[in-house]
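TICKET #2291
ISSUE: user wants both folds in one file
ATTACHMENT 1:
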Amino acid sequence: MEIEKQREIQHRFHKHPLVLDEEESNHTENAYCYGCGEVALGPCFSCSECKYHLHQKCAEAPYEFRFDPLHRQHSSFFLRERPLIRTGVTVDQEKHVEEPDETMDSSICVIKKNEHAEATIVKHFHHVHNLVLEDEMEDNSGNCDGCMLSISTPFYYCSECNFYLHKTWAELPKAKHHWFHRYVATLQFDDFRKCNLCRRHCSGLFYESLSHGREFDFCLRCAKVPNVIKCEGHKHFLFFDHKCQKQCNGCGVGNRYGAFRCRKCSFALDFACLTLPHAFQHKCDPHLLQLTHVDENDDVEQHYCDICEEKRDPTHWYYHRSRCDSYAHPECVLGKFPFIKDGITWPYTRHPHGHNLTFVRNVDGYPECFHCHKLCEDQTLKCSKCIYFRHCKCLRFRRRMKTPVLSVEDIDFCLMD
């Protein structure tokens, strides 16, 4: 399909001509590409009559693709139209809808725009109050309630409560297709859930899909990863292979659920390492530590973690600050639950009193962990009603359960109350 330099095309997936619009500001925040499901930011081919949009790169995608490095047994792949995602509207009903209800697809309802057609006040489906757009964080102390990482601009905030949301996450569609899972995934919010791709427990926004009664969850960091990537830690393109069980070059852990691999060499990378924050601040260091992929230091004395003081493998990824000459394991910098919101509660399924436990990153007074009897300094679960404390690192999880379970000794302790 030759559409380069053309201002108007006839695409086989839409009955009306599509006109090229190269102005990014002309598209509203509620417009999404019908090819990939992402926000329709320019340049796009659009139909003004139907409010149908295709990114230029999506419109230029070939109808037939020959050769895939991971599917050599197949001669070719064919482009299919993305199914409509519209809550409460059947295929037959869709034919009679003259003007699509864009709020079905968008996470936000725009209340006010500025002179550049940018949404400055919005209503997010998860939050009860209106959110205001901001370009600067005054004290740099807030965390995004969508991804739990430190706030970076631009972002939306609530003037009535302590709620922040990166602009990128606020503009996510309520439903989308992800290449890893063939079923439609819907945007959800939860205090405690495990991502099926990076295997981390997280708070915030998730994409959830259901297959034969089973949930499949994507955290936001994994949901934005394409199936073909180019990362800083490797010079070649990486393709996701569901059958790859090679050890991850980032952490050295074997893969049971597939990994991104290089078809030119033996390099492999799992979702957990691929979605590590590029910079992170540890409580013992006021400065940001940078994720580093290659250790060129031959001094074996430097091959230690400055947090746990244990040896580290120089071939694996690590966090580093050159000015302080500090090195640390990613798991030591991030902790067990780096993406859990401070102060959230969830029930201990076998707690005899039925009390909720609160997740806290810093505990006053350094109480004793009931499990290991060491002092609790960070990432602790506490029950204020029965004065129970436990390190998060001492938790164990049952398979297919989202909540931790108590051991026999925990139950004996609680029964004494």
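ATTACHMENT 2:
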Amino acid sequence: MARQKFIDDSHWFEVEQINSYAMFMGHLSMAVRGLAFMVVAWSSVVLLGGFVSMLEKDFRSLAGIALLQTTGVFDSFRKERLRNIWHVFQGLVVSTLFNKFEERESRSGSLRTFLASLPFLVAYTIVTAGKVSVQVMVFIIIFLPLATIYMFGLYISTGISLWRLIKRDYGVEDGGHGKTNLKAALDALYFLALLQGVLFSYKTLYGFGEKKMVKTVAIQYKLDDEAHNFLQDYVDDTKVGCDTNPSFATGRNLITYAVDLMESRLPSGYISGLRILDNVIGLEELKGGYNENQNLVRNRMLSDQKQLIKQLIGSASPSQVLHRVIRTLDLRSPYDLEIKEHAARMVFFFFDEIRLEQFPGGIQCITSLLNMRDQEELVLQGLRILQALAADEDNCRVMSNVRGLLSSIKAPIGSELLHCNHDIAHSLLKLVMQLTNAPGENGVGDVP
């Protein structure tokens, strides 16, 4: 989904490379589908309709090409086709196994009755062998040919067209006007099918450089190995969108993609978006080095990306993305420690955008981080968030009006943890001073 933004992202690595790649692949897909339509229309309407009585050797070739074109699978990507074939194969295997298990279960109830019956055992063996044979025949006769057409149908069509163009033995002697038109029509059809195959083969070969492109972008961003998967997901999603509409990539970048994921109702989408944004937020600017100009370009991109994150999420309704991130910190949330760490760093990044009166229960979610005594990093991050929020006068007033807040902050942190971690002790002391001196209706300093 394209979003309105006021930041120039045309120089970003994923926009320059991944988006351009996806748009180019989308135009190739449209060209392949357009040629497929022309080949089917030419073969079915012009040839089979107008010259069917004159066709001899090429009738089967034309029928085969038309069949291969109308399968409607050649506009999908190689990875998706392999995944679909694997799912079909799994379904076939599962249906066979469950059918066999059902037979065993129905037999076990009457095992004692028929165990001594040799004719029954022989009949049961024959029936079972027959079912297995049928499944094997279905796999060999139906599944394998369909899978071959599904994966390599367009290459087969290209091979047939090239073969017929080389032979050109159409079984039509020169002479009549209709026969001359037939030869020209056959040449045109086979040429269109050959051109389609060349474009499709070029698209396939061009796609083999995709992993290298993803690796290059990841190196340019200085991303870790985990972030490679996020980039690959972004590439796949952008390619699928551009496959039907090449302009899908316009206005799209890694940040808008992550924000869209975080707005998804699916937990997996939200987690992926949270990881992407936290990874970008955690990137540090590079200084010095041999390629200072490249570092300047990368640092400018990082600054623009972080600004865009605040622009997109800050402009959203507080009850949506940011509130969801804050609720992730709650001890009762279903997310594990890794996701809570991502969420805590993101909340700290947005501390200047948070107005606690807009997030009911938000302060309780944040203070719940202090209950994780065995996770010192999360405890320290929670104190930093509270300390940053208390620096704002309005937030500090809201916090000072929460009864028992000071006790709930100090109670989970034991004296042992304070002695072992000086950063936690220093952050806790500073936070207590902020809240104690803050004006409030109740005054946290007066509340035990």
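RESOLUTION: both attachments delivered.
EXTRA DETAIL ON ATTACHMENT 2: Residues 28 and 203 are 7 Å apart (CA to CA).
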